[in-house]
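The authors assume throughout that readers already know how a fold can be written as discrete tokens. For illustration, here is how one protein appears when written out as sequence plus structure tokens:
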Amino acid sequence: MQVLTVELFSDVLCIWAYGAQARIDQLKADYGDRVALTYRFVPVFAAAHERIRDGWQNQGLFEGFNHHLHEVASQWDHVTLHPDVWLNDPPRSSSVAHLYLKALQELEQDGIFPVAPVSDYNGRTQFEEFLWRVRCAFFEQARNIARMDVLDNIAAELGLPAEPVHALIDNGSAHAAFHLDTEARDHYQIPGSPTLIFNEGRQRLYGNVGYRIIDANISELLDDTRHGNASWC
């Protein structure tokens, strides 16, 4: 069976990545083991307060950004946005959550917890469910996901071990993995979050892309064997 590797670059504080989760779930449901998702994280909101202050200084700062996100989310009926998102103890950085996620990925690869999808989690793995719940903690509940205790509580809900996560952050392993994601971002010239990379970088889908476009790219790569590794889609 041919397996297609798809690299997904995102920032946990990106509303477009939050809204795109339904498409990722559909992709997994449609293709199952034929698609291998690799999650990579980019520091779009690594200095979140500075980013919002620089970008929204003439548009209401955090209040203006909050209003903008509610306008964006009003287009979707599959996600919920808290009224106080970015207003109630807003996170200073997405990097803490990204480091936590990179540590969990390493533990997953080492077999510390299963990599198989879990039916109770809409077919997501434990790692994928943790990622989703981190996004929900921020966007739905306006919790500060730059706080280690918030991330530990989410991990505990899923039965994921916090102590070895902390150890991998403390010894630099998670930082190294996050750095490799940054190098991959530069190599592929990733424009922002979310971005899907197919075919070893030959194809790239960025932003609020409809599922039928994603599906067409994957279907072409998996099913059209006449042109080798080149897709006409």
